[in-house]
Specification:
Blueprint lengths: L3 H18 L4 E6 L2 E7 H10 L6 E3 H7 L7 E5 L6 E4 H4 L4 E3 L4 E2 L5 E2 L3 E5 L7 E2 L3 H8 L22 E7 L4 H9 L4 H4 L5 E4 L6 H10 L3 H4 L14 H7 L4 E5 L11 E4 L10 H14 L4 E6 L1 H9 L4 H20 L4 E6 L5 E3 L2 E3 L5 H4 E8 L1
Parallel strand pairs: 1-9, 10-12, 11-15, 11-16, 13-14, 13-15
Antiparallel strand pairs: 1-2, 3-6, 4-5, 4-9, 6-7, 7-8, 12-19, 16-19, 17-18
Helix pairs in contact: 11-13, 12-13
The structure holds zinc ion (2 copies).
The site of one zinc ion has 4 residues, from helix 12.
Protein backbone atom coordinates (compact mmCIF):
# COMPACT_ATOMS: atom_id res chain seq x y z
CA UNK A 1 0.00 0.00 0.00
CA UNK A 2 1.29 3.43 -0.91
CA UNK A 3 1.63 5.77 2.04
CA UNK A 4 -0.55 8.90 2.12
CA UNK A 5 2.46 11.21 2.01
CA UNK A 6 3.73 9.51 -1.17
CA UNK A 7 0.25 9.81 -2.69
CA UNK A 8 0.20 13.54 -2.07
CA UNK A 9 3.66 13.97 -3.58
CA UNK A 10 2.63 11.95 -6.66
CA UNK A 11 -0.57 13.99 -7.04
CA UNK A 12 1.33 17.27 -6.66
CA UNK A 13 3.91 16.25 -9.26
CA UNK A 14 1.11 15.34 -11.70
CA UNK A 15 -0.48 18.75 -11.18
CA UNK A 16 2.92 20.40 -11.65
CA UNK A 17 3.71 18.39 -14.81
CA UNK A 18 0.29 19.15 -16.27
CA UNK A 19 0.60 22.89 -15.70
CA UNK A 20 4.19 22.90 -17.04
CA UNK A 21 3.08 21.23 -20.29
CA UNK A 22 0.14 23.52 -20.85
CA UNK A 23 1.03 26.57 -23.01
CA UNK A 24 0.93 29.70 -20.88
CA UNK A 25 -0.70 31.80 -23.58
CA UNK A 26 -2.03 31.63 -27.11
CA UNK A 27 -2.97 34.04 -29.88
CA UNK A 28 -5.72 32.92 -32.23
CA UNK A 29 -5.11 33.92 -35.86
CA UNK A 30 -8.00 34.70 -38.22
CA UNK A 31 -8.43 35.57 -41.88
CA UNK A 32 -11.85 36.74 -43.11
CA UNK A 33 -13.30 35.55 -39.81
CA UNK A 34 -11.92 32.04 -40.36
CA UNK A 35 -9.64 30.58 -37.68
CA UNK A 36 -6.29 29.76 -39.31
CA UNK A 37 -4.42 28.51 -36.26
CA UNK A 38 -2.67 29.67 -33.12
CA UNK A 39 0.64 31.14 -32.11
CA UNK A 40 1.63 29.93 -28.65
CA UNK A 41 4.59 29.58 -26.33
CA UNK A 42 5.48 26.23 -27.87
CA UNK A 43 5.60 27.54 -31.44
CA UNK A 44 7.82 30.48 -30.43
CA UNK A 45 10.05 28.31 -28.23
CA UNK A 46 10.69 25.94 -31.15
CA UNK A 47 12.65 28.68 -32.94
CA UNK A 48 14.29 30.06 -29.79
CA UNK A 49 15.67 26.54 -29.28
CA UNK A 50 16.51 25.90 -32.95
CA UNK A 51 17.99 29.18 -34.16
CA UNK A 52 21.75 28.87 -34.34
CA UNK A 53 22.39 32.23 -32.68
CA UNK A 54 21.10 32.88 -29.17
CA UNK A 55 17.98 35.03 -29.20
CA UNK A 56 15.03 35.86 -26.98
CA UNK A 57 12.71 37.07 -29.75
CA UNK A 58 11.57 35.58 -33.05
CA UNK A 59 10.32 37.51 -36.09
CA UNK A 60 6.53 37.60 -35.98
CA UNK A 61 6.79 36.90 -39.73
CA UNK A 62 8.22 33.47 -38.92
CA UNK A 63 5.07 32.61 -36.97
CA UNK A 64 2.82 33.88 -39.79
CA UNK A 65 4.85 31.90 -42.35
CA UNK A 66 4.35 28.71 -40.35
CA UNK A 67 0.59 29.36 -40.48
CA UNK A 68 0.81 29.46 -44.27
CA UNK A 69 1.31 33.17 -44.98
CA UNK A 70 4.05 34.28 -47.34
CA UNK A 71 2.68 37.71 -48.20
CA UNK A 72 0.60 39.82 -45.79
CA UNK A 73 -1.13 43.13 -46.62
CA UNK A 74 -2.46 44.19 -43.21
CA UNK A 75 -2.43 42.88 -39.69
CA UNK A 76 -4.78 43.75 -36.80
CA UNK A 77 -3.90 43.04 -33.18
CA UNK A 78 -6.97 42.50 -31.00
CA UNK A 79 -6.87 42.33 -27.22
CA UNK A 80 -9.66 42.25 -24.63
CA UNK A 81 -8.22 45.12 -22.62
CA UNK A 82 -7.09 47.52 -25.36
CA UNK A 83 -8.39 49.01 -28.61
CA UNK A 84 -7.45 46.99 -31.67
CA UNK A 85 -4.51 48.18 -33.77
CA UNK A 86 -4.20 47.77 -37.54
CA UNK A 87 -0.90 48.10 -39.42
CA UNK A 88 0.27 47.85 -43.01
CA UNK A 89 2.41 44.73 -42.62
CA UNK A 90 5.31 45.96 -44.79
CA UNK A 91 5.78 48.89 -42.38
CA UNK A 92 6.24 46.68 -39.31
CA UNK A 93 7.24 43.33 -40.88
CA UNK A 94 10.97 43.98 -40.62
CA UNK A 95 10.94 44.78 -36.90
CA UNK A 96 7.93 42.95 -35.42
CA UNK A 97 9.03 40.18 -33.06
CA UNK A 98 7.45 37.91 -30.49
CA UNK A 99 8.94 36.59 -27.23
CA UNK A 100 8.42 33.34 -25.42
CA UNK A 101 6.25 35.32 -22.99
CA UNK A 102 3.89 36.22 -25.85
CA UNK A 103 4.86 39.92 -25.82
CA UNK A 104 4.95 41.43 -29.30
CA UNK A 105 7.38 44.24 -30.10
CA UNK A 106 6.67 46.48 -33.07
CA UNK A 107 8.90 49.23 -34.44
CA UNK A 108 10.68 51.57 -31.99
CA UNK A 109 10.38 49.05 -29.14
CA UNK A 110 6.61 49.57 -28.95
CA UNK A 111 5.28 46.57 -26.99
CA UNK A 112 1.76 45.23 -27.38
CA UNK A 113 -0.15 42.16 -26.33
CA UNK A 114 -2.87 40.43 -28.32
CA UNK A 115 -5.38 37.63 -27.82
CA UNK A 116 -6.24 37.54 -31.50
CA UNK A 117 -4.64 38.53 -34.79
CA UNK A 118 -6.60 39.22 -37.96
CA UNK A 119 -4.66 38.89 -41.24
CA UNK A 120 -5.43 40.43 -44.61
CA UNK A 121 -3.35 38.60 -47.24
CA UNK A 122 -3.20 38.51 -51.04
CA UNK A 123 -3.64 35.26 -52.95
CA UNK A 124 -0.42 33.74 -54.25
CA UNK A 125 -1.97 30.70 -55.91
CA UNK A 126 -0.69 31.72 -59.37
CA UNK A 127 2.93 32.23 -58.25
CA UNK A 128 5.76 29.86 -59.07
CA UNK A 129 7.90 28.66 -56.15
CA UNK A 130 11.64 28.29 -55.68
CA UNK A 131 10.70 24.70 -54.75
CA UNK A 132 9.41 24.11 -58.33
CA UNK A 133 12.89 24.24 -59.84
CA UNK A 134 14.33 20.91 -58.63
CA UNK A 135 11.21 18.83 -59.48
CA UNK A 136 11.08 20.47 -62.92
CA UNK A 137 14.72 19.60 -63.68
CA UNK A 138 14.30 16.05 -62.30
CA UNK A 139 11.25 15.62 -64.53
CA UNK A 140 13.10 16.98 -67.56
CA UNK A 141 15.66 14.18 -67.15
CA UNK A 142 12.98 11.57 -66.27
CA UNK A 143 14.60 11.03 -62.86
CA UNK A 144 12.60 9.80 -59.84
CA UNK A 145 10.90 12.46 -57.72
CA UNK A 146 12.70 13.98 -54.75
CA UNK A 147 11.23 12.72 -51.44
CA UNK A 148 8.47 14.99 -50.06
CA UNK A 149 8.95 17.46 -52.90
CA UNK A 150 6.85 20.56 -52.32
CA UNK A 151 7.16 22.11 -55.75
CA UNK A 152 5.32 21.63 -59.02
CA UNK A 153 6.73 20.50 -62.34
CA UNK A 154 6.62 23.45 -64.76
CA UNK A 155 7.22 21.50 -67.98
CA UNK A 156 4.93 19.41 -70.13
CA UNK A 157 7.61 17.36 -71.92
CA UNK A 158 10.22 15.12 -70.40
CA UNK A 159 13.32 13.30 -71.64
CA UNK A 160 14.12 15.66 -74.54
CA UNK A 161 16.98 17.58 -72.89
CA UNK A 162 20.66 16.70 -72.91
CA UNK A 163 21.67 19.33 -70.35
CA UNK A 164 20.23 21.69 -67.77
CA UNK A 165 21.61 24.97 -66.43
CA UNK A 166 20.58 26.66 -63.17
CA UNK A 167 21.47 30.35 -63.17
CA UNK A 168 21.29 31.71 -59.62
CA UNK A 169 21.12 35.53 -59.44
CA UNK A 170 21.62 36.27 -55.76
CA UNK A 171 19.43 39.03 -54.34
CA UNK A 172 17.64 40.07 -57.54
CA UNK A 173 14.47 42.02 -56.67
CA UNK A 174 11.55 41.03 -58.93
CA UNK A 175 10.02 44.51 -59.31
CA UNK A 176 13.35 46.14 -60.12
CA UNK A 177 14.13 43.46 -62.71
CA UNK A 178 10.78 43.90 -64.46
CA UNK A 179 11.01 47.70 -64.43
CA UNK A 180 14.50 47.55 -65.99
CA UNK A 181 13.13 45.19 -68.66
CA UNK A 182 10.26 47.64 -69.31
CA UNK A 183 12.65 50.54 -69.81
CA UNK A 184 14.69 48.56 -72.37
CA UNK A 185 17.86 48.25 -70.29
CA UNK A 186 18.03 44.46 -70.34
CA UNK A 187 18.01 43.21 -73.96
CA UNK A 188 18.55 39.54 -73.04
CA UNK A 189 15.74 39.41 -70.46
CA UNK A 190 13.50 41.41 -72.80
CA UNK A 191 13.56 38.84 -75.58
CA UNK A 192 12.50 36.04 -73.20
CA UNK A 193 8.84 35.15 -72.91
CA UNK A 194 8.26 37.12 -69.72
CA UNK A 195 9.49 36.65 -66.20
CA UNK A 196 7.36 34.52 -63.89
CA UNK A 197 6.53 35.82 -60.43
CA UNK A 198 7.83 33.36 -57.87
CA UNK A 199 8.00 33.00 -54.11
CA UNK A 200 10.95 31.92 -52.04
CA UNK A 201 10.85 30.48 -48.52
CA UNK A 202 11.10 32.23 -45.15
CA UNK A 203 13.57 33.41 -44.04
CA UNK A 204 14.46 34.78 -47.50
CA UNK A 205 18.22 34.40 -47.12
CA UNK A 206 20.75 32.49 -49.21
CA UNK A 207 21.09 29.41 -46.96
CA UNK A 208 17.38 28.68 -46.46
CA UNK A 209 16.57 29.50 -50.09
CA UNK A 210 19.39 27.26 -51.37
CA UNK A 211 18.14 24.36 -49.25
CA UNK A 212 14.58 24.85 -50.54
CA UNK A 213 15.90 25.18 -54.10
CA UNK A 214 17.92 21.95 -53.96
CA UNK A 215 15.55 19.78 -51.90
CA UNK A 216 12.14 21.22 -52.87
CA UNK A 217 11.23 21.25 -49.18
CA UNK A 218 10.42 23.92 -46.59
CA UNK A 219 12.91 24.98 -43.88
CA UNK A 220 10.94 23.05 -41.23
CA UNK A 221 11.55 19.88 -43.24
CA UNK A 222 15.17 20.39 -44.38
CA UNK A 223 16.10 22.07 -41.06
CA UNK A 224 17.88 25.03 -42.63
CA UNK A 225 16.00 27.46 -40.39
CA UNK A 226 18.14 30.49 -40.99
CA UNK A 227 21.58 32.01 -40.69
CA UNK A 228 24.33 29.68 -39.63
CA UNK A 229 22.88 26.55 -41.22
CA UNK A 230 24.89 25.72 -44.29
CA UNK A 231 23.89 22.15 -45.07
CA UNK A 232 20.97 19.78 -45.00
CA UNK A 233 20.57 16.02 -44.61
CA UNK A 234 17.52 16.09 -46.91
CA UNK A 235 18.08 14.67 -50.38
CA UNK A 236 19.09 17.28 -52.95
CA UNK A 237 18.78 17.51 -56.71
CA UNK A 238 22.56 17.00 -56.92
CA UNK A 239 22.26 13.79 -54.85
CA UNK A 240 19.59 12.61 -57.28
CA UNK A 241 21.86 13.35 -60.25
CA UNK A 242 24.79 11.51 -58.65
CA UNK A 243 22.62 8.46 -57.87
CA UNK A 244 21.68 8.32 -61.52
CA UNK A 245 25.29 8.68 -62.72
CA UNK A 246 24.75 12.21 -64.03
CA UNK A 247 27.39 14.91 -63.67
CA UNK A 248 26.98 18.24 -61.87
CA UNK A 249 29.39 21.18 -61.95
CA UNK A 250 28.79 24.23 -59.75
CA UNK A 251 30.53 27.52 -60.55
CA UNK A 252 30.51 29.63 -57.39
CA UNK A 253 31.85 33.01 -56.26
CA UNK A 254 34.74 33.29 -53.82
CA UNK A 255 33.12 30.94 -51.31
CA UNK A 256 30.28 28.47 -50.97
CA UNK A 257 27.15 30.01 -49.51
CA UNK A 258 25.72 26.53 -48.97
CA UNK A 259 27.04 22.99 -49.00
CA UNK A 260 26.87 21.62 -52.55
CA UNK A 261 27.64 17.94 -52.05
CA UNK A 262 27.73 15.75 -55.14
CA UNK A 263 28.75 18.65 -57.37
CA UNK A 264 32.22 19.34 -58.67
CA UNK A 265 32.71 22.88 -57.37
CA UNK A 266 34.69 25.64 -59.06
CA UNK A 267 35.36 28.66 -56.86
CA UNK A 268 35.77 31.94 -58.71
CA UNK A 269 37.71 34.28 -56.49
CA UNK A 270 38.16 37.89 -57.49
CA UNK A 271 41.31 37.00 -59.47
CA UNK A 272 41.61 40.40 -61.14
CA UNK A 273 40.93 42.18 -57.82
CA UNK A 274 38.35 44.51 -59.30
CA UNK A 275 36.10 44.11 -56.25
CA UNK A 276 33.53 41.86 -57.91
CA UNK A 277 33.34 38.15 -58.72
CA UNK A 278 30.63 37.99 -61.42
CA UNK A 279 33.21 38.52 -64.17
CA UNK A 280 35.21 35.58 -62.81
CA UNK A 281 32.10 33.40 -62.42
CA UNK A 282 31.18 34.29 -66.02
CA UNK A 283 34.62 33.36 -67.39
CA UNK A 284 34.70 30.07 -65.48
CA UNK A 285 31.19 29.21 -66.69
CA UNK A 286 32.15 29.77 -70.32
CA UNK A 287 35.20 27.58 -69.85
CA UNK A 288 33.04 24.75 -68.46
CA UNK A 289 30.46 25.10 -71.24
CA UNK A 290 33.08 25.02 -73.98
CA UNK A 291 35.32 22.27 -72.59
CA UNK A 292 33.40 20.02 -70.21
CA UNK A 293 29.66 20.68 -70.28
CA UNK A 294 28.10 18.48 -67.54
CA UNK A 295 24.54 17.14 -67.40
CA UNK A 296 23.70 19.88 -64.91
CA UNK A 297 25.56 23.19 -64.64
CA UNK A 298 24.87 25.45 -61.65
CA UNK A 299 26.09 29.05 -61.90
CA UNK A 300 25.85 31.36 -58.87
CA UNK A 301 26.29 35.11 -59.51
CA UNK A 302 26.76 36.98 -56.21
CA UNK A 303 27.39 40.63 -57.06
CA UNK A 304 23.78 41.85 -57.41
CA UNK A 305 23.23 40.89 -53.75
CA UNK A 306 26.52 42.51 -52.66
CA UNK A 307 25.64 45.77 -54.44
CA UNK A 308 22.14 45.66 -52.96
CA UNK A 309 23.49 45.35 -49.40
CA UNK A 310 26.07 48.05 -49.89
CA UNK A 311 24.20 50.66 -51.95
CA UNK A 312 20.54 49.62 -51.79
CA UNK A 313 18.22 48.14 -54.42
CA UNK A 314 17.43 51.53 -56.01
CA UNK A 315 21.09 52.48 -56.51
CA UNK A 316 22.89 52.85 -59.82
CA UNK A 317 25.40 50.21 -58.62
CA UNK A 318 22.64 47.62 -58.15
CA UNK A 319 21.21 48.49 -61.56
CA UNK A 320 24.63 48.31 -63.24
CA UNK A 321 25.21 44.86 -61.76
CA UNK A 322 21.91 43.59 -63.23
CA UNK A 323 22.74 45.13 -66.62
CA UNK A 324 26.14 43.41 -66.57
CA UNK A 325 24.56 40.03 -65.74
CA UNK A 326 22.09 40.53 -68.61
CA UNK A 327 25.03 40.76 -71.05
CA UNK A 328 26.72 37.72 -69.45
CA UNK A 329 23.52 35.69 -69.79
CA UNK A 330 23.33 36.55 -73.47
CA UNK A 331 26.91 35.27 -74.01
CA UNK A 332 26.25 32.12 -71.98
CA UNK A 333 23.02 31.44 -73.87
CA UNK A 334 24.77 31.71 -77.26
CA UNK A 335 27.42 29.18 -76.23
CA UNK A 336 25.19 26.60 -74.56
CA UNK A 337 24.65 23.40 -76.55
CA UNK A 338 21.30 22.71 -78.20
CA UNK A 339 18.66 20.85 -76.16
CA UNK A 340 19.54 22.58 -72.89
CA UNK A 341 16.87 23.46 -70.32
CA UNK A 342 17.78 26.76 -68.65
CA UNK A 343 16.33 28.15 -65.47
CA UNK A 344 17.13 31.64 -64.21
CA UNK A 345 16.03 32.65 -60.72
CA UNK A 346 16.84 34.65 -57.60
CA UNK A 347 17.13 33.12 -54.14
CA UNK A 348 15.42 36.15 -52.51
CA UNK A 349 14.84 39.82 -53.22
CA UNK A 350 16.15 42.95 -51.51
CA UNK A 351 14.58 45.89 -49.67
CA UNK A 352 15.94 49.36 -48.99
CA UNK A 353 17.30 50.18 -45.54
CA UNK A 354 18.68 53.43 -44.06
CA UNK A 355 22.24 52.55 -45.07
CA UNK A 356 21.83 50.30 -48.11
CA UNK A 357 19.74 47.19 -48.50
CA UNK A 358 18.89 43.90 -46.83
CA UNK A 359 16.63 40.85 -47.03
CA UNK A 360 15.37 38.24 -44.58
CA UNK A 361 11.94 39.60 -43.64
CA UNK A 362 8.43 38.48 -44.49
CA UNK A 363 7.87 41.27 -47.02
CA UNK A 364 7.09 41.22 -50.73
CA UNK A 365 10.41 42.88 -51.70
CA UNK A 366 12.32 40.01 -50.05
CA UNK A 367 10.04 37.07 -50.85
CA UNK A 368 8.92 37.65 -54.44
CA UNK A 369 11.54 36.39 -56.89
CA UNK A 370 11.85 36.06 -60.65
CA UNK A 371 11.75 32.51 -62.03
CA UNK A 372 12.30 31.78 -65.71
CA UNK A 373 12.41 28.49 -67.63
CA UNK A 374 13.74 28.68 -71.18
CA UNK A 375 14.73 26.06 -73.70
CA UNK A 376 17.58 26.03 -76.12
ZN1 LIG B 1 21.30 35.33 -51.40
ZN1 LIG C 1 22.37 39.05 -49.18
Amino acid sequence: MIKNKTKIILLLSFVFLFSACKPAWKIEVFEDGRNIGVINQESVKFYIDNYEEETSEIPLGQMLYDLGYTLVDEITFISESEASLTYVWDEIGETATIRESGEITLEDDKMISADQIEIDAPSISNYYSIMDIAPTIAYAFTLPELPNANGQVRLTESGIWDHAVMIFLDGLNYDILTSLIDTGKLPFFEQLNGVQQGITVFPPITTSSSAALLTSTLPKENKVYGYGYRKTTSKTLFDLFAENSKSVIAVEGHSLAFNLRNAETILSGDRDENGITNDNVFENSLEVILSDMPDLLYIHFHDIDDMGHQYGPFSSEYEASIIQVDSYLEEIFIRLPEDTLITIFADHGMHKTEDGGNHGTLTAADLIIPIIFIEK
